[in-house]
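Board notes, transcribed. Complex of a protein with S-adenosylmethionine.
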Amino acid sequence: MDHRHVLTASLDRILSYVRISVTDRCNFRCKYCMPESGVEPMDHRRIMTYEDIVFLCEVMSFLGVRRVRFTGGEPFVRKGFVPFLSDFRDRLPHLSVALTTNGSLVEPFAPALGELNLDGISVSLDSLDKSAFSDITRCGRLSDVVKGIRALRKHTDKVKINTVLIKGFNDHQLGDLLKFSADEGVLLRIIEFMPLDSSIWFDDSFISVDDMIDRLPNRQDWILEGPSLSPDSGPAVYYRNVVSGQRVGFIAAVSHHFCDSCNRLRVTSEGEMRPCLFSPEGERLLPALRDRDRDELVRLIRLSAAKKPRCWMDVASGDNHMSSIGG
Ligand code: SAM
Ligand code: SF4
């Protein structure tokens, strides 16, 4: 293997996937992700421009990165996001491009997103109960997200729903979420609540994937399809309902963490590269990005890859927010 074009980390991990936060801002304030007051908004000048992001991805692609996921904050809050995606597709057509969104602002962009033929659009949806939805997001409207999902489905079959399952909040809604996903023709993936911020994290809110699987309605009808080492979502485990044919994925980021096969790097909207979601800090890429200094950028990216922890528990500090790191 030609190591000039590969990013490696300890445990023989090859890093080929980057999640980039395009903004730290969000129109929601999900209780498990952000404090009620939001996070201090970053000065625009400290945020990567779209041109910075394209340059970063060109360099990362030279280093063997093949997949990019844009996230936030809420990516659609940032002005010009869809034209940027279109430009990105034109300039880096060999990269797989996916998005994570809360879905509330996507409806008008659905035809354009369909045309871009993206490799995946994950919409986060934690409840189908109107008031529970407004409660967990603190300010979101369920109907906007449902409209967004339906509009997207008219133009692409790459839509997935991601649900964080939280004990005492939505664990009794698994059946409703499964039915909705089946009706809309989208794959549901259930994610463990991650202990990123100790001020938001409560031990008794956590449900492990093993418990979630036990709670599947008509549990006897669901069979394990086999683990899928999806480069995009971490190793989700998929179950299939033998009666309806529906599939559901479970992502055990905490209980069966997949650090030893993790292929990801993350970049915050300020251009800080984090080798792990739980890393308290990272390499500041912004000066090298602004100078278009390819050699320095390669050096910093390799340095970050080399700092990738063997396990998230080695670095977790308990005061990170998913919204600022890019979930
Ligand atoms: N705003 C977009 C959204 O909500 O999809 C993208 C950013 S959000 C930070 C990305 C994902 O992180 C969402 O699916 C959200 O549910 C998830 N997330 C945020 N905080 C989390 C936590 N503490 N544990 C597990 N997932 C979390
Ligand atoms: Fe915003 Fe997404 Fe965090 Fe909710 S999970 S506050 S939508 S960034």
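The first strand starts at residue 8 and ends at 9. The pocket of S-adenosylmethionine (ligand 1) is lined by residues 26, 32-33, 71-72, 74, 100-102, 124, 162, 164, 191, 193-194, 196, 322-323, 327 (CB under 6 Å).
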